[in-house]
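Colleagues,

Please find the record for the two-part complex below.
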Amino acid sequence: MSENNRLLIKGNKYNQKITERRTGILFISPFFILFGIFGIWPLLFTAYLSFHRWDILGTSEFVGLSNYINLFTNDPLFWRALGNTFSIWIMSTVPQLILALLIAFFLNQQFLKGKTFFRLGIFVPNVTSVVAVGIVFSAMFGTQYGVVNYLISALGFDIINWRGSYFGTHVAISAMVLWRWVGYNTIIYLAGLQSIGKDIYEAATIDGASKLQQLLYITIPMLRPIIIFTVIQSTIGGMQLFAEPLIFGVGSNYQGLTMTLYLYQEAFNRFSFGYAAAIAWMLFFIVIIVSLINLFFSQKIKSA
Amino acid sequence: MNEIGSNKFGNLLVYLFFIVVTLLSVFPFYWMYVVGSNTTSAVNQFPPAVLPGTNFMENARNVFERIDFLGVMMNSLIISGAVTLSVLFFCSLAGYAFTKLTFKGRDAAFIFVIATMMIPPQLGLIPNFMLISELGWIDNLRAVIVPAMVNAFGVFWMRQYISSAMPYELVEAARVDGCSHFRIYWNIVLPIVKPALATLGIFTFMMTWNDFLWPLVVLKDSSVHTIQIALRTLNDVYSTDYSMILAGTFMATLPILIVFLIFNKQFVSGITEGAVKN
């Protein structure tokens, strides 16, 4: 082989490397271009906005930290929204995850027939749009003629003023979240359960462990990483709760006002973009803090 | 052996539990139809009507009079279809590059993609609105389609699938035969990853179809409303006519239920695989 030829091959390889690099960057670039425009830039600009008084006409004035200071010291609505968000988050997440775990545990039992049918029935709410859920639950939780109050009165209890009371509004909104997401979490837990070997349960059964003991001492500890995953997902979702209270109605005491709804109203009803941007950053910090607390507690449970 | 008797009773309880849970799960759908097929006055009384009535067509006609139902369904279809096709294309293209092409900074770039999934979308809501206004895209379907054309979850999902389903030798052999990278992607990768595309596609379609906050902000005129925004308008403006509103809600929910029942396998496996991999 001549020296020339060898160089040609070498050059070819070098060329190939360059094309591979160029193509690679070209192929992944759509994500980075789009994320740069609609992801990173807005993130930074939200921070910039939050230090300004800014209205829809574009007039702006630098105000330093005063938006944040106002939020903390001079805005009872913000604190109310924060409290509502947490209350609804807990009321929807805790029963939702426990129920999902129970359903998944039972769905994983060998004797059960009709698994596919039950699984489908339990999952189907998740594909319903949040608007449809909001509307139908608003009808069901009507104070005067709602079917839930009808059931309650038929059982001999006093009817509940769903729209007018703190408790009623939080229960109705939590019920929407619960209904829509139980099936989703069930499917995730079920996938986790199916990765646990059958022999562990068999051994436990031989040793005389009851189903409840198996659930508490085998299933839950082995599902721990997946449970953490669902808790974090529910946290992120819960902090972003928006459409359900918007459709159900906030109520005269703002008992249905959540943080994202407050952010939306400040930005697009009152057009105070700067103040709304400060709320957006607070929301982000709260999501991070709550996620960290979650992680901390689950670490503690692990070492206990 | 007295275990057997108590077990049978326990099994019965489990069945009972499932019947109750499934009924609760399905009840709101039933209720949509019950209210939507009665008159509002039949619903607004104690005891309320609990069985389907005969007024559905009448209520549906009222819905068609108040909103351009077919038009908003079409808008939703255009948005969801365009977003889904483009997500499938760009995410699988990136997934291919992230697994089968070697270039400097590739792995760092992928970690960056994953990290972006942590950012809540509300954080950029206001600047995005200002940007869309500057572009003159308010009341234009582009405002919803373009920002959603590729997403981090899709890139992650396609990368995981391509790296496990496609041997590197296949790429090398095609390279030796003189195939360009795009031809390899189009003629070899795409056919192999069809199952992952199906899952990602149905997932993206449903998410886009049900999306609410962003379309609410940028699609103001009723001619560009999606079905979700139109339903919300119906609920806001005619809040006393519950039967008409729920007839509309039922009609809007039915197509997505049918789509789900057809593709429920891809959907469910998508969720489980996504969760287990995370």
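Residues 3-49 of chain A form one domain.

Comments are welcome before we finalize the supplementary table.
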